[in-house]
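I am writing to request your help with a piece of structural work I have in hand. Here, with my thanks, is the record as I have it:
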Amino acid sequence: MGGIAGKLIIFLDFLCFLFGVNEIFINCSVFILFINLPIEIRMTKKLFIHSLTLIFSLLCVRSFAQNAKYEVFVAGYNQKVPVSHFNGLMVAEKFSHGQMYNYYLTGFQTRESAEEAKAKAVSLGFNHARVEDIAEKASGCCYGYTPPVSISEDLRKIRNLFFDFDKANLKPEGISQLNLLAKIMKENPSYVVEVHAHTDAKGSDTYNENLANRRKDAAMNYLLKKGISKDRISGFYHGEVQPIAKNEVGDKDLPQGRQFNRRVELVVKEGNNILNIVEEIDVPAALK
């Protein structure tokens, strides 16, 4: 599409840039112009009206987003990940401190609506999702947030791996953490890692030992594939004997607790010293 249409789209894109509207909205505006106004001859007057309408809509969205009080941190990675990784969540990417790609759900006016969005993210496997008060975060007082003048140590920490019930395949978030671990180990040739695999209490002891062994192998094989030599990786499997959360309360099953127990814990060492670069698993008190 060229001529008047092309020039007006460029003008619309410039206004979006000027007012700081997200690139997604720019792309949507171009798409709408293509769909609704396909014939150049009929576009001159209509396109002008539609452009003004779109600009007004974009600025309204921009204003709404700026007035939001809460947002939901979904996950952070050391590299960009595709939108498909978030299983349908409409996330916004925020590149922070020069090395982390953080992904948020944004635009919440109430904590209740933000908590509902967080629950949805957790249900999709993003266990570290949290609600953040935008005003408090801007002051640097909460959520482990540090002002952008320095890099937060926590943002660089590796997270342990979690698994679906009766599964040993790595989840996307687990793969992301192993990628980060491999990168750190390549940058630090003296580092070694221990891989400790666990299960919940469903099934027999023998079955769970075998399942834990498969989870251990999944993590170790991935690190080997990423170029970490075998002599720098040690593997251990523990079955169900080292839970960090309750598997049940009385005779009642506790799925939330079992989810914490289906895990691979990573222990990074230099010599005999355990390095503080793996994030501790934060089990809620009610599940311990």
Remarks:
- The longest helix spans residues 43-66.
- The longest strand covers residues 100-108.
- The helical segments are 3-18, 23-36, 43-66, 111-123, 134-139, 172-187, 205-225, 255-261.
